[in-house]
Amino acid sequence: MKSALLLWALALTACSAGVRIVGTSKAGGEIALVGSRESAMPKARDEMARVCGGVDTYEITEEGEASSFDKPTQPVKDPKEWRVRFQCKAR
Q: CB count, 10 Å around CB of 59?
């Protein structure tokens, strides 16, 4: 029974990965990865491609932990989150 609960919890955690848009413009933006970085990164790539207009139209300029205290209306369990900054390539 314990192993079934553990597998269910792991599956639920894997499904909860996603992205939160910190900010975007025609020039690029910043995206916070929610949940597992490995699971959220494909969603971030999709969002960067959407903002910049295609699959190979953006460049990641910076990745790393950033404070998530800019969301004061939501409780913060972990004061750090992983963010990706990107810029759109000239066409």
A: 13
